Amino acid sequence: MNKMEKNNTILYLFTSEFPYGIEGEPYLEIEIIYLARFFSEIWIFPTQRKEGMRDLPPQAKVSDVFLWKELSKFEKFLFIFKNIDLVVQILFTEVKDKGLVKVLKNYKLLLDYLAQQLYMKDKMLHFFKAKTNAVFYDYWFCNKVLAIAMMKKKLNKGFKFISRVHNYDLYDERWGDIGVPFRVWKMKMISKLFVISSLGSTYLKKKVKAKFHDKIEISYLGVNDHSVSEKKRYTDKKLIVSVARLVPLKNIHLIPLLLSELDEAVYWIHFGDGESRPDVEANCKYLGKQVQYELKGKVSNVDLLNFYKQYEIDLFLSLSDSEGVPVSMMEAISFGVPIVAKPVGGIPEIVINELTGFLLPMSNDVKDMVSTVKKALYFPFSKSEIKKFFLNNFNAEVNYTRFVQRLCDFIND
């Protein structure tokens, strides 16, 4: 194994919005600290700009050169037309992978996606034309990976090119009938793809040919170690916390209905905001006097962790229908908080029955969930055992040091 030490390699990191905003990609707030221990220069290229800027290491710089741009129909046509040979090649690969019927049925989505990536490819060719001593790292497999892959083909240079893959960018069902677009062509061009769960790795290997399997590695995300010492009570009732964007697939609107069936005195606090807030508020009207609640809305990750540090939490609750391995759950177990959640995505890798929590049945009927939540509220979980599990699996110091060491070995191969 090569020694991990800072060198003169530049890291180009492509994100959705980080370091802008206060909510998106909170896990990168930790990972970038470890990346900065190895890379002497880091350039971050977000796709969208939001209000607020998070702290960065001194060698990390931000550029808005690759922000999303809504292309006109003429612009889309122009990018497709002037890259027609490449477009045909990529579409042919997609036909071989997905079948002609699916491609024809979804041709508009695919061409729109291609046009946007071709636009980004041209911008990248201009921006990076003289910069070769670098690693290109897209945090999402469906962000700018295709544009980077096309740039790599055009330059015919063997620069290092990696990505992580999480949930939306991994599972076909999140994209409807067409599935994840251009997965095979991206796999041909990428150097390494880091999957954040064992389940995700198994899924991906079933979707691509064996010749690509050596490019796939499991690399868990992680969060910082926190104390599990006794804290003050926020309330004399059992305290349940949920953390998620208020969007339909997270099913936060079902939590008030579930709590109304508990017949227990509980206090529920939700952190997060979004389009489903009116549905959540409407269902809160069904809560009886035995249930108190707060909808905290959008909060920073720092404020959320400060809440965990101050107060004793009895349960973390998730009813989400789709997840990778949620960082919000890693944070919960880092404080010794047990979790109740559905067995979707990589959640069974973090929620172990009677150790770190309980898995719910795969149902959106809240009556099917009541017994599991009641059991969890009174089960004698061991904080020290939850913490031990966290340290063995999701400790940032271990996981990100290992990830950066892997990058070090990879760069020096």
Commentary on this structure:
The chain is of the alpha/beta class and 413 residues long. Helices cover 39% and strands 16% of the residues. The protein has 15 helices and 13 strands. The strands form 2 sheets. Strands 3-2-1-4-5-6-7 form a 7-stranded parallel sheet. It has a 6-stranded parallel sheet with strand order 10-9-8-11-12-13, with helices on both faces. The protein is globular and about 65 Å long. It starts with 6 loop residues before the first strand and ends with a helix. The model has no long low-confidence stretch (mean pLDDT 93).
| Mean model confidence by pLDDT | 93
Radius of gyration: 22 Å
Order of helices and strands: EHEEHHHHEHEHEHEEHEHEHEHEEHHH
Helix content: 25-40%
Question: Concise description?
Answer:
With 413 residues, this protein is of the alpha/beta class. The protein has helices at residues 27-35, 73-82, 84-98, 100-105, 107-128, 145-155, 183-189, 198-207, 255-262, 277-284, 301-310, 327-334, 370-378, 383-393, 396-412; strands at residues 7-15, 39-46, 60-62, 134-138, 160-165, 192-195, 216-218, 238-243, 266-271, 291-297, 315-317, 339-341, 357-359. The chain has 15 helices and 13 strands.
Compile the SSE list and pairings.
Layout: E1 7-15, H1 27-35, E2 39-46, E3 60-62, H2 73-82, H3 84-98, H4 100-105, H5 107-128, E4 134-138, H6 145-155, E5 160-165, H7 183-189, E6 192-195, H8 198-207, E7 216-218, E8 238-243, H9 255-262, E9 266-271, H10 277-284, E10 291-297, H11 301-310, E11 315-317, H12 327-334, E12 339-341, E13 357-359, H13 370-378, H14 383-393, H15 396-412
Parallel strand pairs: 1-2, 1-4, 2-3, 4-5, 5-6, 6-7, 8-9, 8-11, 9-10, 11-12, 12-13
